[in-house]
């Protein structure tokens, strides 16, 4: 068992008894564990050529929209291979909004936290909106030795949001609910498939719910678009999420269309509901 570092905080409670001598003073020490390397809310150093490129792009450019996330975001025009067609989705929907892609394949909350603490938020001008999708890899018990609970993933996401808010107070943040994952009774159509354990699926579901608490309707907003990837019975629509985790090119298109009405409102500083649960943000005939 790893040692737990504890932070002692003294709380002083004063109960007034009516006169100075009769006051009762009670001091209590409360111990809270301090985050450490390996925790979802503690930055894990993750230097990479892509990180260096993104730091340079952030410092040299000026963007209105920033997409932050893991491989799901990375696939939008920059992962290559079978995801090469998604460049068209990026060029059609996100490039016209003056966007930059800060998605990193395989990353978890703790690595994204390190990225944004080490240059990826060094914009000359604060972006108008950041769209954040992160946390699914934190629950993946088939590809990572250590995984996190839903509450820990929430804590990691919360620190990311707080870091962005501290660095760019006027930037609005759209937190997307963690996307659904397919189980062992489902079959992907584009190898390799990412069949997930019941625990992983439930952790992502619960963590996604918890992140809605971050929305304040002023600078932070939460959106659930998971319904676009699901069949009527709740199983994954493999035409849109071909490996049971990542959107296919067709899935990326419906994802973009699902978020676009909210993104456009935020970019234009129009009112947006703090929490938008499943099915409440159906795109109109035109997302313009």
Low-confidence stretches: 1-19, 280-288
User: CATH homologous superfamily name?
Assistant: SGNH hydrolase
Q: Helix fraction?
A: 25-40%
Sheet having the most strands: 6 strands, parallel
CATH topology: Rossmann fold
User: What is the mean pLDDT?
Assistant: 89
CATH architecture: 3-Layer(aba) Sandwich
Brief account:
The protein has seven helices and eight strands.
Annotate the secondary structure layout.
Layout: E1 6-15, E2 24-33, H1 49-60, E3 65-69, H2 71-74, H3 86-94, E4 99-103, H4 109-117, E5 129-133, H5 150-167, E6 172-176, H6 198-210, E7 220-223, H7 249-267, E8 275-276
Parallel strand pairs: 3-4, 3-5, 5-6, 6-7, 7-8
Antiparallel strand pairs: 1-2
Helix pairs in contact: 3-7, 4-5, 5-6
Task: Walk me through this protein's architecture.
This protein has 288 residues and is of the alpha/beta class. It has one domain: Rossmann fold (3-Layer(aba) Sandwich), CATH 3.40.50.1110. It is 29% helix and 16% strand. The protein is built from 7 helices and 8 strands. Strands 4-3-5-6-7-8 form a 6-stranded parallel beta sheet, sandwiched between helices. Strands 1-2 form a two-stranded antiparallel ribbon. Helix 5 links the parallel strand 5 and strand 6. It is globular, with a radius of gyration of 21 Å. The N terminus and C terminus are likely disordered.
């Amino acid at each position: 068992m790893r040692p737990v570092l504890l932070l002692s905080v003294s709380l002083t409670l004063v109960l007034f008894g009516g006169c100075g001598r009769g006051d009762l003073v009670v001091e209590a020490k409360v111990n809270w564990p301090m985050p450490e390397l390996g925790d979802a809310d503690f930055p894990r150093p993750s230097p990479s050529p892509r990180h260096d490129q993104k730091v340079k792009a952030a410092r040299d450019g000026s963007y209105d929209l920033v997409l932050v996330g893991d491989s799901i975001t990375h696939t939008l025009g920059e992962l290559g291979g079978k995801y090469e067609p998604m460049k068209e989705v990026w060029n059609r929907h996100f490039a016209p909004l003056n966007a930059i892609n800060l998605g990193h394949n395989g990353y978890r909350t703790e690595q994204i936290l390190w990225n944004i603490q080490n240059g990826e938020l060094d914009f000359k001008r604060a972006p108008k909106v950041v769209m954040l999708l992160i946390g699914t890899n934190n629950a993946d018990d088939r590809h990572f030795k250590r995984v996190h609970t839903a509450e820990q993933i929430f804590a990691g996401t919360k620190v990311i949001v707080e870091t962005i808010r501290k660095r760019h107070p006027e930037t609005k943040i759209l937190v997307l609910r963690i996307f659904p994952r397919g189980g062992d009774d489902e079959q992907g159509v584009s190898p390799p498939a990412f069949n997930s354990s019941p625990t992983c699926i439930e952790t992502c579901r619960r963590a996604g719910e918890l992140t809605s608490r971050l929305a304040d309707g002023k600078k932070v907003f939460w959106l659930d678009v998971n319904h676009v990837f699901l069949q009527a019975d709740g199983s994954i629509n493999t035409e849109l999420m071909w490996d049971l985790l990542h959107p296919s090119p067709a899935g990326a298109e419906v994802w973009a269309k699902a978020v676009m009405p909210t993104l456009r409102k935020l970019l234009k500083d129009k009112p947006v509901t703090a929490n938008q649960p499943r099915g409440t943000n159906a795109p109109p005939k035109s997302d313009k």
